[in-house]
Amino acid sequence: MARTGENIYKRKDGRYEARYIAERDANGKAIYKSVYGYSKAEVREKAEAALVEIYGEKSPIAGKTFKQVAEDYLAEAKGTIASTTYDRYLDALERDVYPEYASTPMVDVTESEMNRFIRVAPDLAEKRGRLLTNSGLLVVKAVMSNVINYANAASGIEKAEIVMDRTAYEELTTAELEMICLKAKHNHCPEMLAALLSIFCGMRTGELCALNSDDVDGVRNEIYIHETAHRVRNPKKDENEEKKTVIIIEEIPRKKQIRRVSYPAILNDYIDEFRLNGRPLIRNKDDEQADPRTLENWLTRIMSVFRIENINFERLRKTYMNFKADEQVLNNIFRGIHPDAPYDGHMDVKWLTDELTRDLAPLRMLVGVSVEEAAEMLGVSTGLYRQLENGSREPSWDQYMTLLFMYHYNMRTTDIVNTLGLYPDALKEKIKIGDV
Question: In DSSP terms, which residues pair with 426 in a beta bridge?
């Protein structure tokens, strides 16, 4: 890997060597020359003088601080990178990098120094009262790498290929795919529609938020993807107390896959519930455009309610990209043909108790009672009821029947109990006393 920053190192004979690009051959390959001295300052001065002699002027970054060079880089890159990327870079610099390197000479911020900083950055952020996540750390590394390479290019030093350690996401398992399809069937909301479109169409969160109802062709079962949504800094935030950020919709460059994708025909009725001509398909409670971060938070929240762990849009889209999005699973579940579900007059007691346990917390919250009140109605201790809700204890059949009575005969949850199949015809027939 090529060195970044100053290409200076100490030799075994005690001298320092500084390498610089003297010229390039016909293929553009760098040809290096070296200068030697007994201190870094000496060889730095010699290398600088050599560059002045070659290029006719002093290096553009000579004497500049990291912040000054970073600002030069952002000004030049603003027209070539996405607006959301620009905002993320600027936030990372202001929140995490500038507090440590704003006044540091650019020549002292090398690749090794960047790698050292990446290791301690989360602890430094915590001391300032903020959490630096893994994704935030990736942005910090990306922008620092770009600034270093920008400085290298200005100084005639070869660009380095810095490896970004990105999180490897796994596609959904068959069980997870079945569970998400089942929950989506019984919970019609924007985040579950977005999850289905991510799984079966490979749509990104920005594309989902920018998707207009008119971009969905219900006849051909196709979606035209040509725009993406970003939440960016509001350039007018200092005027009239405007919001700090705004959502913008940008046309996707053709080279970044403007495309038409097919979606399963069985989703037509589901999509029609959210379709509104001329309006976004994925909208918030105020009937306004959603943004990617909010959509991700919605999915995290609803998955936690369902007690389904480690589900995010990266994994949903990875399932599509790896050709693991089995539409037959979706078709079977939406038509009520599920391998573990009770149907055709068969009553699967284990499935019933497991399904009730998974939905116990949402049912209780819909009714509007506390854990203590629910435990009292069931006639058990609060601790035991908590165990039933968190899945660490299975309900007995008597407890199941009591819970079924509690939630089936409450007007807020009756339809949900029936939709989830928790009161199947087989059970109704079994407890039937006589003809009415």
Answer: none
- The tens digit of pLDDT for each residue in 192-236 reads 999 999 999 999 999 999 999 999 999 999 999 999 988 877 766
Place of tokens 């950020």: 245
Q: In terms of DSSP bridges, do strands 16-24 and 30-37 run parallel, antiparallel, or are they unpaired?
A: antiparallel
What pTM was computed for the model? 0.58
Nearest to 4 by CA among 165, 113, 116: 113
Identify the three-state secondary structure at position 217. strand
- Calculate the alpha carbon distances from 71 to 161, 210, 269 in Å: 22, 30, 50
Dihedral sign (CA 145, 151, 153, 158): negative
- Give me the domains of the chain, ranges plus CATH numbers: 8-155 (no CATH), 174-334 (1.10.443.10), 349-430 (1.10.260.40)
Residue range 93-131, pLDDT digits in tens:
999 999 999 988 887 888 888 989 999 999 999 988 888
Q: Hey, how many other C-beta atoms are within 10 angstroms of the C-beta on 262?
A: 13
- Any idea what the Cα angle at residue 273 is, between residues 269 and 279, rounded to 5°? 125
